[in-house]
Write a structure and sequence with these properties.
With 291 residues, the protein is α/β, with parallel strands linked by helices. It has 11 helices and 12 strands. Helix content is 42%, strand content 20%. A hairpin with a 2-residue loop joins strand 5 (87-91) and strand 6.
Length: 291
């Protein structure tokens, strides 16, 4: 039996065991998928233990993605560029690190390529997920401009400087989260991506834009959050008639990419999507009953 796991701190909330476990069932694979809560200071020793115990691969979630990039033996181009690892492949005595968030985002927005190539993309937030999004955009879609707004404006500028060598002809600029500065950016963007935690359960009333924001029907709005499935931002965009993309898509596709790297075959994403949606809806209903 091949063993896989997700590690993080905390990790009990992760839906990765359900995602991968369902795939193993559907494809009748002799594999197991576990979850382990690992403290940051225990990460180096834990990685050695996983290798010695014969694990074939790991998914890595917060807060270990950046630290893991410094512990593995080799990095893919994506992991090196983003500076974070979310997927581990154990190959004998060597441990390779990859970042499938790049693939996950790219697959999620592939259907709206025309709203990206040669167009303006606005990113709300400048954290680790924003790094994966920026690299995916620059390496796979070629927008004309990427604008990053972040509460800490210096962090936003640092992110853009990090990717300056990857920009090519794309213009990289930073903006303000203050309403007077954000409003015109929202209005002219073709794709808007929320990379912040504003709206994440249980603080579902949070939103990175004002409640009176009106989107254009031709705009595409993506929220990387998938708990809840319908965030306040997605609700506002839907009300305006804009096209929306849930963070669930990125979660599914980044997990599917890990699965394929480990096992050499595609994950049946379309068959698993309703299973994950049902679980998220169950959790959301339960949280309303027991706030």
């Amino acid at each position: 039996m091949k063993r896989f796991a997700v590690i993080g701190h905390p990790v009990a909330h992760s839906l990765s065991p359900l995602l991968h476990g369902k795939a193993y069932d559907l494809l009748r694979l002799d594999c197991s998928y576990e979850s382990f809560d690992i403290l940051p200071e225990a990460l180096p020793a834990a990685l050695r233990d996983f290798r010695e115990q014969g694990f074939s691969g790991l998914n890595v979630t917060l807060p270990h993605k950046e630290s893991m990039a410094k512990l593995v033996d080799t990095l893919t181009d994506e992991a090196r560029a983003v500076g974070a690892v979310n997927t581990i492949l154990v190959r004998g005595d060597r441990i390779a690190g990859d970042n499938t968030d790049v693939h996950g985002f790219a697959a999620s927005v592939a259907s709206v390529r025309k709203s990206i190539e040669g167009q303006t993309v606005l990113l709300l937030g400048a954290g680790g997920s924003a790094r994966a999004v920026v690299y995916a955009l620059l390496s796979r879609f070629k927008p004309s401009e990427i604008v990053v707004v972040n509460r800490d404006e210096d962090r936003g500028r640092d992110l853009l400087r990090h990717f300056a060598d990857h920009a090519g002809d794309a213009k990289l600029t930073s903006g303000s989260v203050e309403p007077a500065g954000l409003s015109p950016l929202l209005d002219r963007a073709d794709l808007i991506v929320n990379c912040t935690s504003l709206g994440l359960s249980p603080a579902v009333e949070g939103c990175p834009v004002k409640d009176d924001t009106v989107f254009r029907p031709e705009q595409v709005v993506m929220d990387l959050i998938y708990t809840p499935l319908r965030t306040r931002l997605i609700a506002l965009a839907t009300k305006s008639g804009a096209r929306t993309i849930s963070g669930l898509e990125m979660f599914l596709h980044q997990g599917a990419r890990s699965f394929e790297l480990w096992l050499g075959q595609p994950m049946p994403v379309d068959a698993i999507r309703p299973v994950i949606m049902n679980e998220l809806e169950r959790q959301q209903k339960e949280s309303r009953q027991h706030p």
